[in-house]
Amino acid sequence: MPHAAQPSGTVVAEGHLIDSQLLTGIFDLVIERGGAFEVLAFAIGRTNDEFSRLTLKISAPDEAALTSLLEALIPLGCHAAVEENAVVRVADRDRTAPEEFYSTTNQRTQVRLDGRWIDVGRQRMDAAIVVTEAGAECRKLRDLRSGDRVVCGLAGIRVMPEFRDRDRADFAFMSNDVSSERRVEASVARIARMMRDVKAGGRRIAFVAGPVLVHTGGVPYFARLVRGGFVDVLLSGNALAVHDAEFALFNTSLGVDLDAGTPVAGGHRHHMRAINIVNRAGGVAAAVRSGVLSSGVMFECVRAGVPIVLAGSVRDDGPLADTITDIVEAQDRYAAALEGVGLVIVLSTMLHGIGVGNMLPAWVPVVCVDINPAVVTKLADRGSSQTIGLVTDVGLFLHQLAGQLA
Amino acid sequence: MPHAAQPSGTVVAEGHLIDSQLLTGIFDLVIERGGAFEVLAFAIGRTNDEFSRLTLKISAPDEAALTSLLEALIPLGCHAAVEENAVVRVADRDRTAPEEFYSTTNQRTQVRLDGRWIDVGRQRMDAAIVVTEAGAECRKLRDLRSGDRVVCGLAGIRVMPEFRDRDRADFAFMSNDVSSERRVEASVARIARMMRDVKAGGRRIAFVAGPVLVHTGGVPYFARLVRGGFVDVLLSGNALAVHDAEFALFNTSLGVDLDAGTPVAGGHRHHMRAINIVNRAGGVAAAVRSGVLSSGVMFECVRAGVPIVLAGSVRDDGPLADTITDIVEAQDRYAAALEGVGLVIVLSTMLHGIGVGNMLPAWVPVVCVDINPAVVTKLADRGSSQTIGLVTDVGLFLHQLAGQLA
Amino acid sequence: MPHAAQPSGTVVAEGHLIDSQLLTGIFDLVIERGGAFEVLAFAIGRTNDEFSRLTLKISAPDEAALTSLLEALIPLGCHAAVEENAVVRVADRDRTAPEEFYSTTNQRTQVRLDGRWIDVGRQRMDAAIVVTEAGAECRKLRDLRSGDRVVCGLAGIRVMPEFRDRDRADFAFMSNDVSSERRVEASVARIARMMRDVKAGGRRIAFVAGPVLVHTGGVPYFARLVRGGFVDVLLSGNALAVHDAEFALFNTSLGVDLDAGTPVAGGHRHHMRAINIVNRAGGVAAAVRSGVLSSGVMFECVRAGVPIVLAGSVRDDGPLADTITDIVEAQDRYAAALEGVGLVIVLSTMLHGIGVGNMLPAWVPVVCVDINPAVVTKLADRGSSQTIGLVTDVGLFLHQLAGQLA
Amino acid sequence: MPHAAQPSGTVVAEGHLIDSQLLTGIFDLVIERGGAFEVLAFAIGRTNDEFSRLTLKISAPDEAALTSLLEALIPLGCHAAVEENAVVRVADRDRTAPEEFYSTTNQRTQVRLDGRWIDVGRQRMDAAIVVTEAGAECRKLRDLRSGDRVVCGLAGIRVMPEFRDRDRADFAFMSNDVSSERRVEASVARIARMMRDVKAGGRRIAFVAGPVLVHTGGVPYFARLVRGGFVDVLLSGNALAVHDAEFALFNTSLGVDLDAGTPVAGGHRHHMRAINIVNRAGGVAAAVRSGVLSSGVMFECVRAGVPIVLAGSVRDDGPLADTITDIVEAQDRYAAALEGVGLVIVLSTMLHGIGVGNMLPAWVPVVCVDINPAVVTKLADRGSSQTIGLVTDVGLFLHQLAGQLA
Hints:
Chain A has about 400 residues and is α/β, with parallel strands linked by helices. Chain A has helices spanning about 20-30, 65-75, 170-175, 185-200, 210-215, 220-225, 240-250, 270-280, 285-290, 295-305, 325-340, 350-360, 375-380, 395-405, and strands spanning about 10-15, 35-45, 50-60, 80, 85-90, 110-115, 115-120, 130, 135-140, 150, 155-160, 205-210, 235, 250-255, 255, 260-265, 310, 340-345, 365-370, 385-390. Chain A has 14 helices and 20 strands. At the A-D interface, helix 2, strand 16, helix 8, helix 11 and helix 12 of A face helix 2, strand 16, helix 8, helix 11 and helix 12 of D.
């Protein structure tokens, strides 16, 4: 029960508060942070379809703690019962924000300007909100310019957490924890259905893949996905393209013959030769056009017109002429490619998977496939309930998936 | 170079000393343990087929260190240049050996009795060697009886390490390290070929499996292996049988519907119900005969006459009437079932896999499949180069394997 | 909204329904299993201290589905709004239950007999409930005898799930997920505080440990815990005792000198020698009394009068004379030793950790320390929110813990 | 035995062929690749100090296979018995090599020019060898310029593999496999000794660290290493600096209070605030000078004059002004910083660890500490026997290490 003598405030939240565990989260947070609460009103949704609505009085030992607590409640969908406009301050130098800037989550967000709630565009996490003539949108700190009008503090900000939808066919599936002790075939069938649904809905599917796709023998199956129209964009790094080219040119991956499973003579030099050959040809697309590359992931994507974005990293060999060596540019290219996708499938790459996760709004589902449960857990932890983890071999996964989608 | 003033001895080793890395191992060991060596003679095999032969003088700081060093060299195939008879002492009480008893490795071993080298029977690791009227054989400490004649010390003992055979088709494959970044399909093809070869040679194949076989959807594929005659004995524990029965009776595994991938109502009680039902029927075989069980791993094995040995453990529910609750008896039953097998395939069970590894002679190849690389490494570390590790999903592995063997 | 035409029932639940996520769980379950619900009444706890109370009408497509659904809701604390007596049937043969027996969870349970709700004794999961003259208690299937009166079906059963207590100091800590990216020192401080609290409350602490305790150098630190009175019972297997004896006798663990970190000559035989020596001495306690063992985990426990229970397994070498080879007896001895403990600490042993988890009621907190996150996750999954996982090195953990408790 | 009818060649190798397992490797390789060999001469080192010398005739089915086989033998120290000069071709365009360029390993290499063997400078793997006026040196493909004289083919190239030195104190330690079942304290003592030896020898120590250093509470212990003079350069990425600044400014890491082990209100925004604050201050060094940062890893390094190189990646937040966003520049800066280091210690960062491994010559020892054995294995696999892996918690490792070095 709030202390009468302590500073207090009243917040409101509404939606599927129970199924989405928001109600639990709200109460937990208040207690964890040393506050107290009193339920002023709670109207429970009588059926699965109805919303619930909570009005909550919150107190904390001092004003600073109360502010911090109210801030922490925003991502859980709480907003002040009394509506205020957002506070906007002008950035005084390029690439930095006023100190008290509001840092976004990846949930749908609205700001109140001149008495009206407006949607924030280009939603992503860890951005500032800039008010423009056209409205408001997320902008990374490095893209701020002196003079930009930046939303500060907590007033006039409203977040609408993704509600879990119990009626969705994949509800239980999406709620599953990460485990390697699962029947993969059932999970693949679900993912195949999600992919068909996304395509049927006219939305795009992005794949984010590491070189393990090649090492584990996934190339022919991924090629079938591309030909089937299930790959709309491929986000990766230098290594996938290098090992794909090595496989196309020498039939090895890291010098290992994938049919025999054994190293071949001189194979450890194949990936450097592959880089040199592709670069001599003028890059991946030119190598495909000139017939230097006539099979593989890159070949299929170029032929099908699927855009490929390769982000560089400090461990790259070469790199290929196509690899974007500046990571700020690479992030911008990734973000542009992800605009409006309906599904993201991450295959064995923690680095690029986290990069993509940072950019996505909370409502885009992500499937993460890796044989290492720690990677799956780490990717799932970053997002919300939007991530489905599958602990299995990527080559066999693609084999099964291509079969299901055939 | 051995110190003139230090105690020294001369040993001989012969065989594929280079390819099997015995030569390296011998030299390393001497230096690691603070000794010194001088190569008195070394005849290298000129071609891949020829044996090499080494005569080595070894010194150590004192007699105890020399003895310890010579002992450590035995498993590497070194034996004293001057041949002596083995020392035999009589056990003075049941279940324990004389303190200086020779504890075996899993390599082929000979003892010298009355001037003749004879083979030690029932080779396994961590046993004593008992001299009987018929010859000599490995015997576990707990099976020793007062009056048994036990080989002690190091004299008159000769170990013949398994040589790696470079000409064997699977040489490079067998030498592979554990990695999840491999093309599983290539490895499965090799394993399928090994299985056909073993069967063609008239030898038996033992499977050692944990309940993950059921959880990951492997049951129908394992059933095909049984029907194809590729399973000669199944070693497992209570859990596999329980979850197999649960799947046969309720179509769930740990309460999860394997087709839908989701839990079903009351499913968490299914495994206890399954135990009760099977036990009411009088055990697994009776349940199959009476039609209570009409599908699954147990059903297929019973129908095909494949012996099943279920070893109990402290985490068992139930247990089933078939589960051997005394682990000494279970080990004996395992060991009897493994007599003369030509290949062992371990599917996701560290506990039973280690148990089996303890019993096998070094010349029986072991394939170990687990999605956790640490398990594969641990099983591989215990044996010699005999173990092939494969890091992948057991359900998909069995799917592929059944396809390859169809 | 429940279909008017479908069979329906009304259930009641009360308690900390929101913080313990029971409300979410109840609604989710109904939808997942194809049912529908209508909230007839919901009184929310206005403050953190107050209980909430829910009255819920539930429908399902047919009577069987409804029964199954109502059964699944029991562990979430739902019981029929209309109270009935439990149905009791007589077991018709030893070691098996009537088919429709109620299989317990590890949560506090009551049964209604002759119009009165009585507590079920010896609460554990996966047991039957037997009605005796004195009341009702959990009994394993194998302990049932013909003539026992067994609770069947769902009527007259009430489960009180453990409520998470937000006011407990360790609330947030207990809610943490498994991660290796944590500051271990902070977690150790919490665990040390829990241990002091448990002892101050007059309750006992059970350790469940694998041989990794020895391999990772934890022996001297564990010894300090024993001497400090923080170990009331030690549950383990043969391997811990063997490697502890090996370390005490030869200063090696699996043949590795723990100071130098390198193998010593003949070391691979040390564990077999250790078994033989201890068994010759007449077992662990006799070996301590006669001075054969003069340091180590076993020595400290024997000297301090801490009971040790060693459960056998199929991978055991030896075994030691002290190892209980029958796993049914071992389970019974474990269960007796755990009677009334206030805290369980599991150190790197999945096998014994799961065994213990099966026996514990839900209200005993369990700390699980393992360097493999998969083990921690697996142990945590089995229980409820009672398990705290810590991913770290056991040797360093014990070093820190002994320091904190000094 | 080589076929008389097949093409053949004769190679020579000398050195510690047995202890370094080169002899085994050479023979294995010939057989694996379908060739045959005949030992023309083998002089074994009689003692541990003496070199061995091998002359080997090799045949293969055709000229292409023979060339490929001879090429594969180069890294094992084999060179043609008949000495030829290296073939040098002129690069015809920037950033690419002639197709038949020789791609280097990280082992010491010599090329024969005008009848003289000269050392190749700046040894690293996956580079071309460019002949300059001053001699010959490794150069990455992207640094090649039209007109550069590039070594092609295999003639006139000689590689001197690192020999394992059995007499080195840490010989056995260095040979250890990766395992989490080790006594970490013993390993830390060895590493501390190596660090003292390297510093006593006047060489530098490079640390390569990920943000887990901060999350696991390692900051105060790392600070002690910096103050003790044991850190000569720090190679990392954006995340370490961000989380270090977050910890210095807010006492949290990823929003978690490291003392309490629990999240604090608003903590998820701390890392973005930290980036903004440091960037407003003009970067890390400026933030230290102006007192904005007054503790932490960055603070200590700046104060002690330890160079910090932060390489960007696609998952970076911000990034900080100090982060090098172009990965080609970052690689060059890493390589320059690593010039002449005597020891590299990698703490929980696969990305930067692999990047560093790509640049190092084979004779620089690398210690890799990670709680995930797969990371340790992956880093160890890339190098040679130079990598020591330690599976443990980074925070506790640094705690122990700082204690040992105090």
